Amino acid sequence: MIENTTLHIYERNRMEDLLKIFSIILENRKFDPLKKEKVVIQSQGMSTWITRELSRQLGIFANIDFVFPNAFIDDLFKKCFKDSYDPEKLTRDVLVFRIMKVLSEDIENNKQKYSQIYDYIDEYTSRNFKISSKLSALYDDYQIFRYEMINRWNSDSNKDDWQAELYREIKPKNIPDRSQLLYKLQKMSFTREEISSLIGTTDIFIFGISVLPPYYLKIFEFLSQYIDVHMFLMNPCREFWVDIKTEREKAHKFIQAAQKSGIENLEESDLHFFTGNTLLAEFGGMGREFFSQLLDTDSQVEVSQTKNQNTPNTLLEHIQDQISELYQSDKDKIKINKDDDSLIISSCHGKRREIEVLKDYILDILQKDPNIQPSDIIVMAPDIQDYYQLVDGVFSKSYAGERLVYSISDLSVRQENQLVDLFLKLISLSKSNIKASDLIELVEDPIIMESFNITENDLVIIRNWVRETNMRVDVVSDDLYTINHGLKQLLSGFLMNEERVFEDSITCYKDIEGSQALLLGNILELIELLKYIQLETKELKTLNEWGTFLHSVVERFEDVDISYSQQKIIRDTISVFTEEKDIQTLSGFDKPVGFETIRLYIERKLGSNISSKGFLSKGITFSSMLPMRSIPFKVICLLGLDQDTFPRKDPKLEFDLIKSHPKLGDRSSRKSDIYLFLEALMSSREYFYMSYIGQDSKDNSQRNPSVVLEQLVEYIETNFYIEDADILDHLIKRHRLQAFHSDYFRPESKLFSYNEENLEVSKAYNLQKTDIKDISINDSLESDIREYTPIDIIRFFKAPCEFYLKNENDIIFLQNDDDVKDYEDYQIDGLQRYILVKKIYE
Prior knowledge:
Blueprint: E1 7-12, H1 15-28, E2 37-40, H2 44-58, E3 64-67, H3 69-81, H4 92-104, H5 107-113, H6 115-121, H7 125-145, H8 147-155, H9 162-170, H10 178-187, H11 192-199, E4 203-207, H12 214-223, E5 228-234, H13 247-261, H14 278-283, H15 285-295, E6 301-302, H16 315-325, E7 334-335, E8 343-348, H17 351-368, E9 377-381, H18 388-395, E10 406-408, E11 411-412, H19 413-416, H20 418-428, H21 436-443, H22 446-451, H23 456-468, H24 483-495, H25 498-503, H26 517-536, H27 543-555, H28 564-574, H29 583-587, H30 595-607, E12 610-611, E13 620-624, E14 633-638, H31 657-660, H32 669-683, E15 684-693, H33 707-719, E16 720-721, H34 727-731, E17 732-734, H35 756-771, H36 777-782, H37 790-798, H38 800-809, H39 830-841
Parallel strand pairs: 1-5, 1-6, 2-3, 2-4, 4-5, 7-16, 8-15, 8-17, 9-13, 9-14, 10-13, 14-15
Antiparallel strand pairs: 11-12
């Protein structure tokens, strides 16, 4: 071990304070300006924020290599173990097909060894792929969170554990896994110069990471023996808090202690449990586990945490101060000003109303506080993909002649990349016969329109062709009502002379004009592509052959005017089947499989590809609530805090050894979401806004918010008060179903709106209400009485608005002939129905 090297840990409850320490270290240390500094982060947004803020503080901030922990450790292993390290053979994707290979061979013997999963697989290849994907993900997690167990599996030949036996079968004999690499690394000895040469720097900086798995912590602890490792951690509390307990934990520990001790009159106070702050105890579970792991590290740890000298004024500042100082004021409640709006909760009727209310809230903040700019605001949701279309629809509208500038991050590649979206549509058509609605959806796709020279005006003609030739389904069969049969009608009508067409109107379509021949040819070319996809995907092929097929589909759109990066995403995804080290070669799985397996693989790969390029790019940032997003903003808004949405539930497999035997530091979606909420609460500098769907849009019944929101509300009610007012009425705003409700435009109302259109609608609506005279019961009896048949009553309940407009205002709704039907309508009259029913009963 080298002297004067250590694992430095800097803890603060404000990210800005951590950044100041980081900038001081960078300014004071001597380093080679030609070498890059290594900064380990866990989100791309953090690198953007660090670069922006340090550029402001230092004047220039460059030559920094931001890396994720996985990439950093992978690069370290490559340089340490060189040729013996071959991670490509142990990736999740390769393990999937290695498992499939084992499970598809010697089936009779495997059914006994792996009976738990063979009951599910049966003879379905797609099920084999699904269960293999689950097992591959588990084995990957085991190497990080149960590396001791994996190491035992590698050295033990016990056949009683089917997961261990399967792992030994799929793992290449001469390739070490991550558990073996860790133990090998710990046995090695280096000099400071050797480690610096391997890593490319003399110091490692780990910034803004909320938690690290024990596996990663072990590696950084090992490196700290030779070079300085600096960890900048956001700790919500400056006091020692790893031993605090929630009420549930205290009750559980008390029952255990009472059972073990046998003391009859044991009191909870005898056990000296300490909570300190209930919010920190309830929300900080994941952080507590991580900081307790840091206490067990063998390296010298330098902890530095200073007390916040600022006096809290607002409700938000009081909550943050109580969490930071580990206390609460439930006995002596703190008085909050009536005009305090630092923390607001909005209860809405749906996602769109959440966005509309949010826009008014942001406009109000920008209006009354000139120091806040759109770039000081972040809006997060459990999954921003549920909101992004609504955001575009609401925020794209201008206010007072100006639009709010915003950017949306964390969208799936399918939502950002038109070619990916089209590609996924095309391969999904393999699941069933192509319907007429599928064809219309495809021809309306911008890339299809460009690739096959289809214009906006052509879409009307195509719809008319589909409807009038009774195209319903199937591009392969020539049967009546198929798409293929309809196309033959169109082609026959174009090729035959006019007299023959009128004589044979059943098989020939008569209205093909000369100028439409080119369009018909383009449609036929598209149908040929769809036929090719339909026929090819019905076959069994090897992985390499499927790769060739997928490339042939993508090549059809090479000439379309789209960026190289958009094409590259698809090519990189399918190249694993055709490149030199393809997945078939690496896994050894060379059996033919159906296209369903390939489709599931492609959809998962592209579906899990999330882009963060819009984070902190311009104006208001919209993003998903992802871990390691504890970046400070003046205004933080959280959407979608519904009971069934947040926090996420942890999926549990019956054979998941991590979930069945949990340990400190294990990954948990639920704990991660709750801790993320705590980080967001502590990172908000002036305003913290939350919203959820609290009323049903149909009957206005109440809906419960997320459990974290309920706990926060309970905490506020217990510790704070407003003089001569209910603090919850002040805190929670229950919004109306309609944005034009008059409550938003009354001076005495607590609700407000900046939408001028809704103001005009509200005025018109309320004007109509005041113009209606008060009609007495006697007057109403003298009015005309109309008679309605049972059929009329049925029509009213099926379509009340249509019935009213038709009967009261003589407005007739025309049948929409533009609808494209996927199936032929078969109608029978009363006599036919009677005969058919009689035959059935006979």
